[in-house]
Amino acid sequence: MGSMGQSGTGPGAIAPDGSPVEFFALFGARDEPTIVHRAIPEGATVLELGSGAGRVAHELVALGHSVVAVDESPEMLEHVRTEAVCARIEDLRLDRRFDAVLLGSFLLNSADESLRRRFLDTCRIHLRPDGAVLICRAVPQPPSAVGPTESGGAVITVADVRRLRDDLVVATIEYRMDGRTWRQEITNHELDDARLVACLHEAGLEFDAFLTEDRAWVRATLCQAGG
Fold first, then answer.
1. According to the model, what pLDDT value does residue 142 have?
2. Which pLDDT score, from 0 to 100, does residue 141 have?
3. Phi, psi at residue 33, to the nearest 5°?
4. Are residues 84 and 95 in the same domain?
5. Domain tally, the chain
6. Mean of all residue pLDDT scores within the chain
7. Banded model confidence at residue 226, pLDDT cuts 50, 70, 90
8. Distance CA 70, CA 186 (A)
9. How far is 47 from 209, CA to CA, in rounded Å?
10. What's the pLDDT tens digit per position in 39-94?
11. Contact 35, 211 (CB under 8 A)
12. Residues 119-139, buried b or exposed e (16+ Cβ, 10 A)?
């Protein structure tokens, strides 16, 4: 995955960001591949940053895209069945550009503003002039909207939510599947629409569109001025 989380516990390997490898190797994609597929050209080349075990990458390949998966966890990449690169997102420098760069897993919401900018710099550097960056951000939700979700035999629960300040939230995510339980603590810097647009612009990117009703998925392009 990426550098969003702080710590994780449970059976098997735990990625540097606290993500449980065994869980994400078993847990399938939800609507992410469809959202991405509809927002990019047929047969597009895709660079997925923070790919984890490949649950989104594999579906995009099945939809006809050529995907390079990037993650800092070698244990995650052992499960990836497409071209893979083991690297930290902020350090990645490949000698090629892509039709689409995908930054999912709420990586944009890193509590470290400098790291967030470096993530976006990596997106911009690897984007073709006519390409698009697709980003999934955490949008603010009232406590009543957060509850257990079930998908593909897994139960995911958000617990122990603490707001450190108006825009900084710490939460513990519990994953349960096949009789096993993992817990991961994450810290999210919530970004409203205005701050989102500003962050993109600071990195040489331009807001293009929201891709989902909840405004969690965003498409951005290179700034017209060159960025």
1. 54
2. 61
3. -60, -40
4. yes
5. 2
6. 91
7. very low
8. 20
9. 20
10. 999 999 999 999 999 999 999 999 999 999 999 999 999 999 999 999 999 999 99
11. yes
12. bbbbbbebbeeebbbbbbbbb
94 lies in a domain?
yes
Q: Does residue 126 fall inside a structural domain?
A: yes
Q: Tokens in use for 169?
A: 């939230």
Residue for token pair 């895709």: 46
- 226: in domain: no
CATH code of residue 91: 3.40.50.150
Same domain, 23 and 50: yes
Whether 199 contacts 120, CB under 8 Å:
yes
Q: Looking at residues 107-118, what average pLDDT do you find?
A: 94
% of the chain surpassing 90 pLDDT: 79
Tokens 């349960």 belong to which residue?
176
Q: Which residue bears the tokens 């980003």? A: 135
Residue 158 forms part of a structural domain? yes
Closest alpha carbon to 126 in 219, 211, 49, 196: 49
* Cα–Cα dist 4/178, whole Å: 26
| Tokens 């900084």 found at | 168
